[in-house]
Specification:
Elements lengths: L5 E6 L5 E6 L4 E5 L4 E5 L10 E2 L5 E6 L4 E5 L4 E5 L6 E6 L5 E6 L4 E5 L4 E5 L6 E6 L5 E6 L4 E5 L3 E5 L6 E6 L5 E6 L4 E5 L4 E5 L3
Antiparallel strand pairs: 1-20, 2-3, 3-4, 4-5, 6-7, 7-8, 8-9, 10-11, 11-12, 12-13, 14-15, 15-16, 16-17, 18-19, 19-20
Length: about 210
Amino acid sequence: MTLGTVIRSFAAPGPQASGLTWDGARLWNSDNGTNMIYPISPVTGTPDEPIATPGALGLGLTWDGAFLWHCDQGASLIYKLDPRTGTVIDQFASPGGAARGLTWDGAALWHSDALADQIYQIDPATGVVKWQFASPAANPRGLAWDGEFLWLADNDDSIRKLDPISGTVIDIFLGPSTSPQGLTWDGRTLWLADLQADLIYQIAVN
């Protein structure tokens, strides 16, 4: 399949799909209409019992192998959550004024901010910014990590493959939706959550 081909899509479990992540078996989707985070079957799109978000404007979501991380734009906080209960295990301030995307690279968090138009690499133990670069487009949203590169969903409806050191755009394609939010990588394909369409898309990248 060619870059950007939609493999399939299904309805998101809530009315305002935002953050999206993959835990190795299931998708997790945060919804800022219901203030819930839903575990979802990637085959059927069926949600399991959700957990509550700690804030009222949660957007970015990622999985570190054991815990969920979730950023809330209203509170300007990044939370570490127990995936079973939603209990906040840790939290720290997000570095910008409009917290959006969040992804995990195996050691650090990557975070996009739509006000500063920056992408940050953050130490999860301290919340300290380790590295940052300017987003290649205004109002950056969802972030995903594929093991080597970052993928970024932008306000211009494009999805960009980025060098994590320089921020250089390696590849780009037009996404399938007009309000892309959450983005995640399942080891083979990208998944994208759209806020207005309330759909979750699986997208081929090669």
